[in-house]
Amino acid sequence: MTAGLFLSRAIVASVVMAALYVVYKAAMSRINAPALMRSAILGIYAVSILAAITGVPLPATLTGGQIVVINVVADESTSTTSMTRIAVILYLVGVAVMLLATTVAWLRVWRVVARGSKVTDSRGVTITLLDNDNYSPFSWMGRIVMSRRDYENAPASVVYHEMQHVALRHRYDLAIAQIFLILDWFNPAAWLLLRQLRKVHEYQADRRVLDSGADEREYQLLLISRAARCHFPTFTSALSRSPLRDRIVMMQRDATKGAAWRLFFLLPGLLCAGCLLYT
């Protein structure tokens, strides 16, 4: 697949994702059903990727009564060749910059975690302890990481919160979102959807903490007290990452029952995307 055709597919995925993101925000972003919200977001990624792989190239136009498919790999003799080349070059530069930034950020997290020491608590949970107290507890690549001070003084709900990120395999969601962000860096919906995904991850972990018997008010006060000390590496799930107001509001809402039907609202988004691409 040429770089031009790859860009064409990325644009198709962008339009589909943008349309579905708008529908998701309108229909699902305010319900209290974190598992369903997570499924919807992952579904948007899946549909966008599927559209990019199986969808037809960018729209056709009529020229002299004949259909001419507009492909990013235009013929060298056409007047659009130079613009096409510029677009492809800009796209590849963006991909390279995003890939480099991702690699650097990942290596920084690895360095932070590698400097820690592993301990096993009374529940058999392996935790990496850091000497730097400025880091808020976080999970990364299936590991729970926190400062020694937090390990010795923080309530059990702190560790339990991070355990839920690991148990729910949130790291795989973030990996999918980051890969999509690298390849579709020019799409605002890709950035916004990653932000929504992080919020939903925190909603899920918070709900499990409360369901385990933790006092809701004490847990909320814990989050507020740690808001000022919220230094955590990129690509991690952290106790203090998502906006506290949204999380506290979500905790106070009753669980939304029978919300699965809202997934059908994504169908109009697909129709709108199709109309934008192929009309």
Summarize this, please?
By secondary structure, the protein is α+β, with helices and mostly antiparallel strands.
Structural description of this entry:
- Helix 1 runs antiparallel to helix 10 and helix 7 packs across helix 9.
- This protein has helices at about 5-25, 35-55, 80-115, 150-155, 155-165, 170-185, 190-210, 215-225, 245-250, 265-279; strands at about 60-65, 65-70, 115-120, 125-130, 140, 145, 235-240.
- The relative contact order is 0.17.
- A five-stranded mixed sheet has the order 3-4-6-5-7, with helices on both faces. It has a two-stranded antiparallel ribbon with strand order 1-2.
- The chain has ten helices and seven strands.
- The chain has about 280 residues and is of the alpha+beta class.
- Residues about 60-70 and about 70-75 have low confidence and may be disordered.
- The chain starts with a helix and ends with a helix.
What characteristics describe this protein?
10 helices, 279 residues, two-stranded antiparallel ribbon, alpha+beta, five-stranded mixed beta sheet
* Proportion in β-strands: 5-15%
Q: Count the strands?
A: 7
Low-confidence stretches: 59-70, 72-77
Shape: flat
List the helices and strands and how they pair.
Elements: H1 3-27, H2 34-54, E1 60-63, E2 66-69, H3 81-114, E3 117-120, E4 126-130, E5 138-140, E6 143-147, H4 148-153, H5 156-167, H6 170-183, H7 188-211, H8 216-225, E7 237-238, H9 244-252, H10 266-278
Parallel strand pairs: 4-6
Antiparallel strand pairs: 1-2, 3-4, 5-6, 5-7
Helix pairs in contact: 1-2, 1-7, 1-10, 2-7, 3-6, 5-7, 6-7, 7-9
